[in-house]
């Protein structure tokens, strides 16, 4: 293999290699020399000797000997394997599943092997896949060879019971029918945590940073017993061909019983509720969220003292607890907005939790002295402009959203003064944004996903505030969408006179919401919670094209500009559809509304849309028909992976 091929398979900058018995991880050049454990292998491939030390592994202090065998993952990438059982060091760090195939050398000659093979053939059904002998997931997963009681209990908690699509631990002959998988499937399972951090973590950065998370998994895997299956479930959603139903069922089973009353359990429930919600199961998601809130209030997570009392003197863990509380508050408010509730559980809960630091600082582990919410609320009196973290501006956007919930679903108009006060909150939020927070792209070319979510919430809520009092009327078709709020608003005469003002405000918010998705960033890496906001914005843009924008008006503000924004919004929704069920339903709803209201031509005998059932029957082929003389083209986001491709609809 030449150097070019080698670099494609293994990038040393993409991971940190850890010695499980040493301190902080070190990044070295190319392949790393590992302290090789003193392991005596018998004929069956089991370990004999000292079971003491971390994970039952005793390390040689002096001589380095060649490992007797390598795991399948290291063999496949042609990288050095240290042979540590049950999980080699490289697989520990990368979060991959470590599989050792049973050696056939030195087993008593060919006659013995022939007899064994004949016995196996008699007991096997024809065409059954060969099972693997050992499986290790994460750290210390094989219970047969673990001597540490803590690791044994963590292993048992993480492995039983396993749904279909999971490999069993220990000897596969004891596995129930349907759980045996091939070695390649097991190796793929080991990538799920990596996919979580690559595609989802930056949008909701509450879990410990990747390097610190792996360290926690190594030193105290039992503490992550509930969280790890959830991360694998979410990572599996971003993995083509993964058994997502099995991953989800395993996470559900882990969270359904008695779980520890701690911050990691809250993170697990919160992230799982978010994943279930974006899979278009609102009621189930709210149940998991309620349970997370129950535990949070029970252990006093809303107090800053909790962050330090239960951080084990680790500022990174303390920061993670702060982020967990504030994300719990934000998701509680956003779920209420999406479900059109007038309030939410944490709306009136008093808190003194400090504000989170910048996401990049959190990842570095160098946590500064945090600001407080009072510091932020009095920012206008500071002598010099203070730049707060992106997370802080997201928190404030959700606080404003919380105050606006009852206004958006009121049966009667809230009155001109109430609308002015609500609008002033958003104006102030925008006025006090530093320039660096208005530009969502960082110097390294990556989008600030936290700030992106803050902006989409702000713009969508501004649109929902002003649209009911504008000329952008809700059609009867649009009101059947799950995302559309109640629209039975009785207008006052004073507000009717301000209709032009509210129309301009609504159009401004609609344009800003949709154009956020034109940023040079992979749509698939945005938070999936933005799907409903984007669907509302696109349907509002359809109303604008129908009621306000003139077809002969030039420029981006005219009808053609509005149609381009509809195409952009639909493309961004479709980019999320392969992962999240809510995006698939939103595409059907938006396409149905657009076809009917804009009079898109019917081709090849496709009937006009029947809206019964909330557009559930509106299939994918109909979307292609809707485009008529248009075509979908793939626009590479620059990362050259199919998950990072945004779909845009463009005219030929």
Automatic annotation (TrEMBL):
SMART domains assigned to the protein according to its UniProt record, in alphabetical order: GAL4
Annotated InterPro entries: XnlR_reg_dom, Zn2-C6_fun-type_DNA-bd_sf, Zn2Cys6_DnaBD
Gene3D superfamilies on file: Zn(2)-C6 fungal-type DNA-binding domain (4.10.240.10)
PROSITE patterns named in the record: ZN2_CY6_FUNGAL_1, ZN2_CY6_FUNGAL_2
Membrane-spanning intervals of the chain: none
SUPFAM superfamilies reported for this sequence: Zn2/Cys6 DNA-binding domain
Keyword Nucleus applies: yes
GO annotation, biological process: DNA-templated transcription
Pfam families assigned: Fungal_trans, Zn_clus
Ranges where the record places region Disordered: 104-152
Skewed-composition ranges (Polar residues): 142-152
Keywords assigned: Metal-binding, Nucleus
GO molecular function: DNA binding; DNA-binding transcription factor activity, RNA polymerase II-specific; zinc ion binding
Presence of keyword Nucleus: yes
Biased composition (Basic and acidic residues): 112-124
Domain Zn(2)-C6 fungal-type: 70-100
Name of this protein: Zn(2)-C6 fungal-type domain-containing protein
